[in-house]
Amino acid sequence: MNVRVTHTNKEGRMRDRLTARRLRLAGVAIVALAALVVSASAMGGGTRSTACGTVVLNENAWAGSTSNVYVVKYVLEKNLGCKVKVTNITEGQPNFQAMADGKIDVVLEDWQNLASFPQYTKNGSVVKVGGNGIVGVIGWYIPRYLLKQYPQFKTWKGLKGKESVFKSPELGSQGMFLGGDPSYVQKDRMLIKGLGLDFKHVVAGAEPAQVARWSQLYKQKKPVIFYWYDPQYLNAQYDLVRVQLPKRFKGCLDDEKKGGDPKKFACEYPSYVLDKLVSGKFAKSGSPALAVIKRFKWTSADQNAVANLIAGKKMKPDKAAEIWVKGHQAKVNAWLGK
Question: I need a labelling partner for 319 at 20 to 30 A (CA). Which of 36, 74, 236, 303 fits?
Answer without folding.
Answer: 236
